[in-house]
Structures
1.
Amino acid sequence: MNLLTKYEEILLISIYKLGDEAYGARLKRYIFEVTGKDWNYGNLYCTLDQLVKKDYISKTAGDPTPERGGRSKHFFRLTVSGVKILNESMKMNYALWDGLMELAPGKR
Amino acid sequence: MKDKKTKPPGFLFWLIRQIALQGEEHSLSGDIEEDYYYYAEKRGRFYAYIMCWSQVFRSFFSFSKYYFYGSTGMIKSYFKIAFRNIKRNKMYSLLNMLGLAVGMACSILILLYLQYEFSFDRYHKNADNIYRVARELHPGHSHGGKTKAASTPVQLKDALIAECAEVKNGVRIVSRSNRLLVYRNKSYLEDNIIFADPDFFNFFSFQLMKGDPNIVLKDPASIVLSEDMAEKYFGNEDPVGKVINFNNAKDVVVTGIMKNVPANSHFKMNFTVPLVNVIDQNSSYSWGNNMVLTYISLREGADPGELEDKFPSLFKKHYREDENSTDRTYVNHFTQPLTKIHMYSDLDGELSNNNDIRTVLIIASIAFLILIIACINYMNLATARSVQRSREVGVRKVVGAQRKQLIRQFFSEAAVFTFLALVLSGVLVILVLPFFNNFVDRELSLSLIKNARFLLSVSAVTAVVILFAGSYPALFISSFKPVVVLRGSLSGKSKGSVLRNILVVFQFSISIMLIISTFVVKDQLSFLRNTDVGYTKDQVVIINLRDRNVSRNLEAVKTELKRSPDVIAAGSSSFLPYGRFSQTQPNFPGKPEDFENFDVYVGRVDHDYVDLYDIKLADGRNFSRDFPSDKQAAFLFNESLANRLGWDPAVGKEYMHWGRKKGKVVGVMKDFHFHTLHRGIEPMYLFFEEGMNFYYLSVKIKGTNIPGTMEYLQEKMRGFSPNYPFEYSFFDEVFDRAYRTEIRMEKIFSVFAYIAIFVACLGLFGLASFTAEQKTKEIGVRKVLGAGASNIIILLSKEFTKWVLFANLIAWPASYFIMNMWLRNFAFRTNISIDLFLLASGIALFIALLTVSTQSVKAARTDPVKSLKYE
């Protein structure tokens, strides 16, 4: 039973959702838009590296573009095991959050 | 769309390349650039600039964490555990931290000191290109024991500027003291006066608060005062334009006020006067007349070595052209960088007493050693507690921790420790700084730390401490095998005790060495103080004679002084004991052509000097009023001179001083030490000459009422010379000044010895208490079986004393060797007696036992019931 850390989970979901646009700066912007948290690049790339090491995502090089001063991007895609673990995580989250709306303090 | 101007800065990308993960540098750089344009469109270039920098900055820490720990999650737990461990063993932690803090405080102070010392003279704008020209002296012509001199010919500066392309500019300096300055009712005898060429203030960067640097020294009758002097003479008035009388000779106008010379300068002056006042432009000086100090500035990129290569031909040419110059063999001249003068230069004629790089290096190495001792403490204490931690390590390994992670954990602990120790050492430094300043005779302040290089060095020291001190526990404890450890077979005997004991030995060797060195230096100092110098120096006051009126009138002065019964005798001389004597070569009628010259020292005395100091005569008589011919020329040789010349008997032989004073040798003095005991007794003679100025009046007084006698002397001297201050020294003070280096060395060694022993004992204390704790069960059993308190104490102490005694094996030969080398500086030295070694080791042993005993007594008194209860 391997649990994803929260950072890893957020990142995997974002990669899945962004599809072909899943590269560094885009991911960072997306996460900020959705969660409101401003990740720093260190966090981003280190977590990406961890996910690659665990074989949940794969990395491909893209074409250089002028907007980036002629540098290429690395695109990330979920691997089979990545999708699997994300599914497990989603199921677990649904199971836990089932029936709960806004939590009220003091109750139970 | 995007023109070149709106691109983000290139330096940013270099930084990104340094910190990004391998393989992702390009990607990250591209991301940052993309972000830059995004932000730029949103809120403009400046906003984008700031945002990108903050992104990079924040990423830095995350990347670092990942590098060190391989994960971004575990670090917090490491620090939590580190803090918990510290709290749990409050006493050990405190001891350990204190030891580290002391070691680091020493290093920080030394770093401050080094930084300051090496910063001398660097504030001058052109400092890197400024050099001083100096010369070597002929062997046999050494001055005051030194083989090189800073004084150079008067015409050198102009010749260098004209004939050498490398030299851009130059300035000549002459330093004088003892000039009387008078303004209205304020008159003072001033030292620290500099005579300099007119472009002095353009050449150096001494700031002028008032006055234009191009013209302040133009007029010969001008003077520039320092801030402090301006206040001293003029108070709140504006000094510019006022007239001061200089040296009873000339009136000079104040043309400028200079900011006080910064403390980190190799020369400091209160008054600056144009050079023409001592160097007459019209008269010609021979190239053999070395009267000035010459500072030159080289053009950018010029090589001082190439300039030095030009010296031989330049000098030889001018010697030949110069009619007044004797046909002398060339002496080597060389250049000294301005910034190196303070630390490395020790020439005859230095403007002030410079520092010595060797002393500085010694102090730095001792501080470094103390830091090592402190780190060893940490290692010892940390591994001694390894039994406690072994179970933790076993459990961690069982649940899947890799050795790498454990190593990281222990390094984190070392880091937490070290940072806390760093804070503590900061407090120590602040507290100790005034005493340290006193100790090294400087005014270091905390503002000096506000520069990148210093903070970088401190960080480097911290990092080294963490790595060094943390390495042994990290590697050692993390290597425990879970099976062995959890089975419990480790408890009862601390693992790794061999290495730990070696470390204790090392710590105590260093401490004992420092104690022995302190004793040897103390011993040598007391030897210097008490050894028979061949004359009597008790109860002697030496008065400085600066007023020419007084020194011309000495017979009357002496008679007047002797009216008091407290004054036993008075005699005058041209020299101060232990001080500088003039030097020359022997000269006498009929001196053979092939005579081998040697250095002879010369002094001038009056009739009463020899008797006042009780200098014994081996032959002949003292100068005497009964022989009026003495006044013309008479000589007193010392035995060494007579023997060296091979004159036996010497009395009655004719001798010449400087080729112009012919007379007879009237007596031979038994050898006495007129130099410090660093040197042997060299050939020397005294001669008498009336009408010459003497500089010092020695007065022998009765010791019964010293304050009263001093008041009497002051009154009388003031009577003869109302304008001049009454300056005197007791003979002991003269001694202290002459042996200043040795006295300082004694202080240095003793302070360091205290610190080293303190830190070593901290470590020992921790180890001892730990061992006692380990052995509680054993002690409990022994007590039950009938052991008394003393047996327990002996049991616990035995282990440690063994190692302290062992430390002697290293300390004794090492200190003997080092101290012998130091003693070779002295022609006359004390024997290093075995007593010192025994005493030092005894002290170390005693302190160690004391430290250990506190713990062993506590252990011996514990109730066996308590210690055996838990099984």
2.
Amino acid sequence: MKVIVVGYGLSGKRVVDAVNLQEDMELVGVVEFNSFARKMAEKKGCKLFSNLGEAEADIVVNCTLNKINSDKPVINVHSGSDKVPEPNNIAIKRIIDTLDKLGKVKRVFATVLSRGAHATDHNQGPIDAIQQIFGKDPEEEELKNLLPGVDVFTKRVIVSTSRSNTQIVKLDFENLIDKSKAVAALQSNNRITVASAKDGFPDTAHVVEFYRDLGRTRFDMPEVFIWEETLSTQSNSLQMVLCIYPDATSIPETIDAIRTSSGNKLPDSIAKTNESLGINGDETRGIKNGPY
Amino acid sequence: MVMKQGGLRMDPIKVAILGYGVIGRRLADAVNAQDDMIVVGVAGRSASTTLRDAELRAYKIYITDSPKPEDASQRLCNVKGDFGDLLKKCDVLLDCTPKGVPKEYLDIYNRHEKLVTIVQGGEKHSFGGVSFNSFASYPKAKGKKKVRVISCSSTGTTRFLYTMKENFGVEDAFVALIRRGSDPIKSPKGPFNCMRPVMGQSHHVPDVNTVMEVPGFSMAVQVPTSFSHVLSFQVDLKREVTRDEVISALEKMPRVIVGEGMHSTAELGEYYLDMGRPRRDRPEIFVWKESIKVVGKTVYASINVHMESITIPETIDCIRSTSDLEESNWKSIYKTDKALGMDKSEDCYKR
């Protein structure tokens, strides 16, 4: 599959690296206008194009915030149709899909603490505040569409911190859920990590630092990280606090979207993607996996 | 001279303050504003510069430890005596020292039989076996010698859930708290640039349950901001309601503001700064009107708690309850609110 990536920003550069790790994909090149980003792409060995027409590709991955026009199929990472879900929503969807065998979720209440900005965004804020989001939140609408038949309510705020997002999540099931079964199920999904705060993860900074020491590229954590001590059940409800590194969360799902667009089945793609990106199991429990 | 209910004339309650920090300084001014109580002195550690702040506002200064000549109290203040001297002069002691410190003074407090000691929410319910909230548990403090006022976010949670419970009945409640890392004046003991969850249920709903029966669960994450807390509620009521009913119930409740147009905690802080509130304080909870949503029997809302000032009016009411100065909590609440300039129309207090 010949893939062309538009935009070499926070997500674009990661999609490029991820595509390069796939055996069944070939990166044709990158479309980018910003001079700094172009230099970076060149340094990393990418062929640069000024417009889509110049390149021969089967599929386009749009990593910009803008709409692009193409006669080829386009996968949008940030906005538009055929869009990879938002990282906050990917987190919830992974958890609900994984717990599906334990019971059906009928209601979701997620309080989402979104980071103010990536540290390099000097025009974003806030510097010291918790900012409200009112009115229709497209992110909430998207989650509702991802979970048909489920009563979804999200309360999103923007917090003056960089890098990670956290969510306080309450899932109401149709039946009682057993905590240890839930933990086991979640741990069986490679794209979810359940770790104990007492094993060195008192806050999001320690989570970041762990993956930094692990030597992953850009110390990315595409997995959803759940603190085990925050996982508890109350009659039919399961609640937890999770954290994600939003720049990395959607990369596996983006690769899956590329692969399934050419007719591949999703479960096979998930396994292939996980293998190629080194998402092979929970390193926090001392098991080292992955290509370092 | 003040009139107690029943016609017995009484002198104003003599209140002493230990610790002139974030809470202590606000309580001193709040007591000062009431006509039935006075501040007889402020005590603190000899080296503490906050004693200078207290003296600038004409409070009498007492020290709790042995002074050294370079201490702020020796250089900058007119010290009237030690902590023992102050305790002999007061009816009520408001202990506003950091979490865990009041325990160290228990022996001293126990030596003064008639002394009433009121502590803040950093202490446990077991401090005196009595916890306080003006709406929900006022009579329980009557005649008690050791009472703690529940913490800032627990007070905020209580006010919101009390309103829901009184008007509609509460089947279940879940509150997700997004808490400021540190007060503006303090060095960050909170996170500098990360988020820190409470690993398990947070203390808030359990604390609410020491003053009011309501089923619920609370979870909290600390974030790097200094202004105020945001609390996100999901409350399952006992009956279906309309959004207007919920708004109306909140608007009629004292110590609750329903507002709109504020997009962040910083903007909210700035508004009360402009409105001339001392120290930009807002002891009321602020409910973001835009956040109120009703789905069947469930109410969703997010509220703001200004942690530096929210427990101030509760503590004043606690003084009245423990001193048996006022039988009716709503009469005390009205009196406190009026004196502090945060009162609503009188019929809001006729409950």
3.
Amino acid sequence: MALDVSLSIELLIAAAGAAVLGSMLGLGGGVFLVPIFTLFFDVDQKLAIGASAIAVATNSVVGSTVHLESRFTNLRFAMMLQVATAGGALIGAIVGVWAPERAINVIFGLVLLYAGVSMAIKRAASQVDSSSAPDPHGIAATFVDPATKRSVRYVPQRLRLGLSVSGLAGGLSGMLGVGGGVIQVPLMNVLMGVPIKAAAGTSSFMVGVTAVATAAVYYSSGKIDPRIVVPAMVGIFVGSQFGSRLTRRVPAQRLTLLFVLILAYLALSLLLRSAGYSLPGQR
Amino acid sequence: MVESAELDTIYPGVAAVLRTGFRIAAGFLLLGIAIALIRQEPLAERTDAFVDIPGALLDLRASGFIDLAIIAIVLTPLAAVVTILRGFIAAGDRRFARFTAGVLAILIASIFLSLFQ
């Protein structure tokens, strides 16, 4: 099949858009990339998931260096959770490669609905103050918050719950090609008492490691299509550079409403697709 | 357990590995795209088998370089985990070295599957 430059450019622009949306939300591009590729470009679902896994790895490799240098990433905590996340991703990817497309559409739609509802409900920041909590597992960490210039110490709490949910996040990541941050960040911040910057920084690093397991399974199953992966990699990289800058220019309330609507639209589209229907403008 | 002092050397090392891995992958990707455009070579529909990649590189086919770029970006987080493991071992942090070794084992198992494409 001849190189279709125009299609590659369209996929690149779509991937960049997904990355902009994802980085503004802190969700990562995969949450938007797979639905956009499958709904609007008729890309095979498994190929879209494989491409997303590679793109997520790319985004993580680029983005987490900043978090590491700022010490937002808690490596001990990350490795502890990563055992569950990577294991979940391996199983999720094996299941995802063989699962029926309709089942994946339903699961993905529900994940997007969850993300939208989470954003719509104004959740209070974590009330768990773990700054002076004991640290029996050796996973306490300290970082300097650039906004306040103050040193912040925290000790992640509820480890068993965290490991269980991390395994689930990994499973979804492997099955859907997303980074898992949509579950990991709220888990760490709200349930485990990790400050949001540390949660985002730790998650940013973890999603790349998780994506290795996913990408390897899809690679071995012949579900990595360079015609899809190349525009996805380049687009995700370019888009993520602009996303965080755009966030500062848009009022927070409008941002939330916009993304809730986008997530609801994509969720509805996938759920309808699983039932054999398509919304106007979709392939 | 002193958290900060022991890990001070690990963080910069991991960041350096990630930066290097990205640069290698980006280099291969740009090279592959350039070859594809110059030779009007269509992108492959699937990745080459590992044994075919050296031949593709020697023939200066775009697919070989693009496959290497994909492999490089996927292996970069793996290399980061190896760096973390070495750091924990050097710091005498056996507990977290075991966790990290567990993560590494899972990732290697995943990659082992891809060898039988």
